[in-house]
Design a protein that fits this description.
Helices cover 30% and strands 23% of the residues. The chain is α/β, with parallel strands linked by helices. The chain has a six-stranded mixed beta sheet with strand order 2-1-6-5-4-3, sandwiched between helices. α5 runs parallel beside α19 and α10 crosses α13. The longest helix is centred in the last third of the chain and has 19 residues. The N terminus is likely disordered. Bound molecules: flavin-adenine dinucleotide (FAD). Flavin-adenine dinucleotide (FAD) binds next to α5, β10 and α9.
């Protein structure tokens, strides 16, 4: 049965009909308020999962399973709905039995096209902020047996007399942002970082690395970058910010602490986590274990026949620091994505002779153009002036389901291609192969689908176009000799340095040496959507695999992403962990099976 259309464009009318159908348990009526093409993206509020339901049948099935427990009420429209291109868009708020949430509703012809419901806080476990912020002191006449500093020192028992509820492996921006959220939710947490200082994951990268995303997109939760922070911050500045942040947010951040082994006790529902801290072994026993060991997994090192005879240096991009020793020498950069471009430019900077080997086409967008057409509407000074705060921008972005995200990207890249036509022509003339993805949807979709295959041009493309960095496209290394490489087309290039900018394996591979091969395979690949394009095999998953949501291994989670994803989804994950700590019922709907091992 399909309900008659609400008469007005009316978001409030729709919401009222939806809310009353849900309140009376009329699932068919509720789902019939969605259009023929429709999506409900839920961030934990209903599904205790990160899940997109596609079509009325999937929506009805989810409601059948979750509605009674969620028992949603008090749906409200927040502010004035807007209208453009035949769409009515409204911000909404709602409550479930256990949580408060926000969302975005988009109506087409009076029916819901997309609905986002995102958990914001757990009732009774709200963060103490604003009016309910901690006083910091107890005023009055009494013996002060505990100052704030003492209370903070009390945290030092964590991992000794007292066990943390959660352990986060990896203290890069991901581990730090999640740790900050968990701290505000009073979840006893230890962050393990094998490096000597917070921020070293950025400091240790190559000299010339500068953020490719602009500042408005990069804020961490709670403490935004100041207004005079550069648009593109250099890596060490980010490293220092992370270190300062971890200290000010009073995180239990263990430096020089490597997680070397972890095992799950099914009976106790508890992990045993072995840590080598300043060389000494200790064991932690948390209930929840989060891997935040890097956006990608271990380096993807390709085998180079004959490399044992090579008289020069060879390394993966993650081991490359600077081109300084290579002035006047010959270097080969294998790969043609972000790191390859940055490293080629760095080597050129030090007067090395550089050749880049490109296996397949790269999606390139000039930073300037991308800032205007890609970032400006949501993350920029003008977005802020239009009232789109970072928080709002994150939700607007989250409100577009992955299935249809490419549709909005294709025209953007059409315009990028048109505006920068002379740039692409020069690049093509050099022999460099570029594309905009199999469906012309560009860089962000490539990143979401495959995590690789793109470069935001901050200058290296010009070096290629004018021949300062030589490009050899469509060839690979056949074998390495003492001072040269032989390519698959039979040609030979002199080489003193080979850098493999060949990317990283999936995050789940990081589990194999620490937990087991079996668990790494059981949870399966992280990231990717199953879109079916090269590098992102199906079946369609609807959401990035395994990120910020329950996995096939109880008590095991993954967190990470660029600064923006890490900021937004750290709340989504932290609330799932908090709910479990408080013993709230968290029935997970549609736990995704693992289709790929790596
Ligand atoms: C060239 C380039 C440009 C980039 N530009 C941007 C950009 O503009 N904006 C952006 O947001 N992102 C950018 N990124 C991506 C960025 O690097 C990642 O998004 C980010 O580092 C991921 O953060 P993370 O905390 O998940 O991982 P990481 O920063 O890699 O941190 C993981 C941490 O885990 C630690 N660790 C690993 N294993 C263990 C263990 N067993 N025990 C203890 N500790 C462990 C590591 O030491 C490391 O510190 C860029 C990356 C590259 C390579």
């Amino acid at each position: 049965m399909v309900e008659p259309r609400p008469s007005a464009n009316g978001a409030s009318e729709w919401l009222e009909a939806f809310s009353s159908a849900l309140a009376s348990g009329e699932i068919e009526r509720a789902s019939s308020l969605f259009g023929d093409e429709c999506f409900w993206r839920d961030l934990v509020a209903f599904t205790w999962n990160v899940k997109t339901l596609e079509g009325r049948d999937e929506i009805a099935a989810m409601l059948g399973a979750q509605l009674a427990a969620a028992n949603p009420t008090t749906w409200h429209i927040d502010g004035e709905p807007t209208q453009s291109d035949g769409l009515t868009e409204a911000w909404i708020t709602f409550e479930t039995n256990l949580a408060r949430g926000r969302g975005v509703l988009r109506l087409k012809d009076g029916r819901a096209w997309t609905l986002l419901t995102a958990i914001e806080e757990l009732k009774g476990f709200e963060e103490r902020k604003g009016r309910s912020r901690p006083l910091g002191v107890t005023h009055g006449v009494y013996r002060r047996d505990k100052t704030l500093l003492d209370a903070k020192r009390g945290d030092e028992d964590l991992g000794k007399e007292k066990q943390p509820y959660c352990v986060v492996v990896g203290g890069g921006q991901g581990g730090i942002a999640l740790g900050a959220r968990l701290k505000q939710l009073d979840v006893p947490t230890i962050i393990l970082e094998k490096n000597a200082r917070a921020g070293d994951s950025w400091r240790n990268r190559y000299r010339s690395l500068v953020l490719h995303d602009p500042v408005w997109y990069d804020h961490l939760p709670y403490i935004p970058f100041p207004e005079n922070w550069p648009v593109f911050a250099p890596k060490d500045k980010i490293g220092d910010w992370l270190e300062m942040y971890a200290m000010l947010m009073e995180l239990n951040y263990w430096v020089s602490s490597e997680c070397v082994h972890a095992e799950y006790d099914e009976e106790k529902s508890e992990w045993s986590v072995d840590v080598v801290r300043y060389g000494a072994r200790t064991t932690l026993r948390p209930k929840q274990l989060v891997f935040a060991t890097g956006a990608y997994g271990p380096p993807n090192v390709i085998s180079l026949p004959g490399v044992e005879t090579f008289q020069g240096r060879h390394c993966h991009s993650s081991g490359y620091k600077t081109g300084e020793p290579y002035a006047g020498k010959s270097s080969i950069v294998v790969g043609s994505n972000s790191s390859a471009h940055d490293i080629a430019a760095d080597l050129w900077d030090y007067d090395a002779k550089v050749t880049m080997l490109q296996r397949s086409p790269t999606t390139v967008a000039r930073s300037e153009t991308l800032m205007e057409l890609g970032f400006e509407p949501l993350y920029s000074e003008s977005a802020l002036r239009a009232g789109i705060t970072t928080d709002k921008a994150d939700l607007i972005f989250a409100a577009t389901p992955f299935r249809i995200m490419h549709r909005g990207q294709i025209p953007i890249y059409g315009e990028i291609r048109r505006r920068d036509a002379p740039f692409y022509a020069r690049l093509a003339k050099s022999g460099f192969k570029s594309d905009f993805g199999e469906d012309e949807s560009g860089l962000m979709m490539k990143a979401l689908r495959t995590g690789s295959g793109y470069y935001i041009d901050v200058g290296a493309s010009d070096l290629i176009a004018r021949g300062d960095v030589a490009i050899r496209s469509g060839v690979e290394i056949r074998c390495v000799k003492e001072r040269s490489v032989e390519l698959t087309d039979g040609s030979e290039l002199p080489a003193d340095l080979i850098v493999m900018a060949t990317g990283f394996q999936s995050m789940n591979r990081a589990l194999a040496p620490i937990i087991s091969e079996e668990v790494a395979n059981k949870v399966g690949k992280c990231w990717g959507l199953g879109s079916g394009v090269r590098g992102d095999p199906g079946p369609w998953e609807g959401e990035p695999r395994n990120m910020w949501k329950p996995t096939q291994q109880p008590g095991l989670w993954f967190h990470g992403g660029n600064l923006a994803l890490s900021r937004h989804y750290s709340l989504v994950l932290a609330l799932q962990i908090k709910a479990r700590m408080e013993g709230l019922p968290t029935p997970v709907y549609g736990l995704q099976p693992a289709h790929h091992r790596s």
